[in-house]
Structure to design on (396 residues):
């Protein structure tokens, strides 16, 4: 069957997810073209991507980077239009020329363009979990009212998507029990400190924290995996994506990272999605759904893997996981406040300004200091996000 060409915008194309997305696109020139690429800085890498994929537009963080990029692209004889700033990100995410948007900016900076893509009715490939954590009801409402399609890229949520009946995804008002869904089993590798002596956690270095045993990822999400705040953010993400309450989302530690998550049904069946830990699998799945395309990832060799193990998470070792459940329970802007405090704490840790153990303490203090407010519009979300950042900074 002849495919209609899909034009894709990649928000955050120089990041770990952005690069994996371009790898999948390059394998299918008959199906996909790049409409726009965006990056905050790393201009040379973005320029090399532009040479290879020839987008119509490239967006960078500021005027200086734009000038630099413009110069390289003209030297290469490229016609790619260069823009900069937050408004340009929203413009390429919602442009009529683009069909599909990979939302792969890290952190709160991705919220406005992700929401713009959802409001414009695009196929939104969501990697930027922080956007959904901050504004769950707003983003889900935007998707429902514009007729956009939201596809999870996070490996766990993509796995859950694959283990849930297709009819469930088509409904706006979803009730898990109507489909026999008992609970979601969200797997977690446990990160680099799963078995480290708990008394030494206050002394771990940045290099140790970002050395994830199974996944190669950006620095922020790598630290989130070490604290397990990443899993906490994913519990909230699962709640919004699949309409399942916190009480029916269970985290299971699975150090091999082969089972990417599971769905448990009332008849005793548990469906799982397995694969190598390589983000090109969920990216290819989400891009081609409901079809399947090659992603460059080899299938797993179960005999070689030999053992799959599971254990319960230790909330004393990983207090961030509990904080996320608390935020989801509190509702309103509590998840946005928690996310903002986490972003500030992780950056302070990466900069060597605070120790590893201070990350969870700082988030807890900010959450205790700021009451949850309503999430009615994007402006109020950003207001509460900024307030939480200010309070977090005042505690450092
Ligand atoms: P990364 O740090 O490797 O890349 C981030 C990208 O965002 C870069 O292109 C960067 O230029 C851009 N960016 C950063 N700050 C920006 C700003 N203020 N404005 C505009 N652009 C900005 O991160 P990553 O690992 O690719 O993760 C991206 C998102 O995907 C995160 O939300 C992460 O939680 C999520 N995610 C990542 C993985 C993974 O395997 N890496 C898996 C699941 C989910
Ligand atoms: Mg994940």
């Amino acid at each position: 069957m002849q495919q209609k060409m899909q034009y894709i915008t990649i928000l955050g194309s120089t990041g770990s997810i952005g690069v994996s997305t371009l790898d999948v696109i390059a394998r299918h020139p008959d199906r996909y073209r790049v409409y726009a690429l965006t990056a905050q800085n790393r201009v040379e890498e973005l320029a090399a991507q532009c040479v290879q994929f020839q987008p119509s537009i490239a967006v960078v963080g500021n005027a200086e980077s734009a000038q630099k990029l413009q110069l390289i692209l003209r030297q290469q004889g490229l016609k790619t239009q260069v823009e900069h700033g937050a408004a340009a990100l929203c413009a390429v995410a919602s442009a009529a020329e683009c069909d599909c948007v990979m939302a792969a900016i890290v952190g709160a900076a991705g919220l406005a363009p992700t929401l713009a893509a959802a409001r414009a009715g695009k196929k939104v490939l969501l990697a930027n979990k922080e956007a959904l954590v901050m504004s769950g009801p707003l983003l889900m409402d935007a998707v429902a009212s514009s007729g956009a399609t939201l596809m999870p890229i996070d490996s766990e949520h993509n796995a859950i998507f694959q283990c849930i009946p297709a009819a469930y995804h088509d409904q706006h008002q979803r009730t898990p029990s109507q489909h026999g869904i008992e609970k979601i089993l969200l797997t977690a590798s446990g990160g680099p400190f799963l078995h480290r002596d708990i008394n030494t956690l206050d002394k771990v270095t940045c290099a140790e924290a970002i050395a994830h045993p199974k996944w190669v990822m950006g620095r922020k999400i790598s630290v989130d995996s070490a604290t397990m705040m990443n899993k906490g953010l994913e519990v909230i993400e699962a709640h919004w994506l699949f309409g399942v309450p916190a009480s029916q989302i269970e985290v299971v530690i699975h150090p091999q990272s082969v089972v990417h998550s599971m769905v448990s049904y009332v008849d005793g069946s548990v469906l799982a999605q397995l694969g190598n830990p390589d983000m090109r699998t969920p990216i290819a799945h989400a891009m081609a759904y409901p079809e399947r395309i090659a992603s460059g990832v080899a299938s797993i060799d179960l005999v070689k893997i030999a053992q799959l193990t599971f254990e319960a998470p230790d909330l004393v070792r990983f207090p961030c996981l509990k904080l996320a459940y608390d935020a989801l329970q509190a509702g309103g802007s509590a998840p946005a406040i928690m996310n903002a405090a986490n972003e500030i704490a992780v950056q302070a840790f990466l900069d060597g300004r605070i120790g590893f153990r201070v990350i969870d303490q700082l988030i807890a203090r900010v959450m205790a200091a700021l009451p949850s407010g309503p999430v009615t519009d994007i402006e109020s979300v950003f207001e509460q996000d900024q307030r939480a950042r200010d309070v977090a900074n005042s505690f450092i």
In short: Residues 154-156, 234 surround magnesium ion (ligand 2) (CB under 6 Å). The chain has a mean pLDDT of 96.
